[in-house]
Amino acid sequence: MVDVSAILNALKDVSGQAENEFLALHEPCFKGNEWKYTKDCIDTGWVSSVGAYVDRFEKDFADYVGTKHAIAVVNGTSALHISLLLSRVNAKDEVLCPALTFVASANAISYTGATPHFVDSSTQTLAVCPKKLESYLEEIAELRNDGYCYNKQTGKRIAALVVVHILGHIAEMNALKHVVDRFNIRLVEDAAEALGSYRDGIHAGAFGNIAAFSFNGNKTITTGGGGMIVTDNAEMAAKAKHLTTTARVSNGYYFSHDQVGYNYRMPNINAALGCAQLEKLDEFLAIKRKLAVAYEEAFRHIETVNFIKEPKNCKSNYWLNGLYIEGGLDKVLKATNEANLMTRPLWDLMHTLPMYKSCPRAELTNAEKLSNHIINIPSGVNIHPEARRHA
Ligand SMILES: *Cc1c(COP(=O)(O)O)cnc(C)c1O
Question: Which of 1, 5, 88, 194 is 20 to 30 A from 214, alpha carbon to alpha carbon?
Answer without folding.
Answer: 88
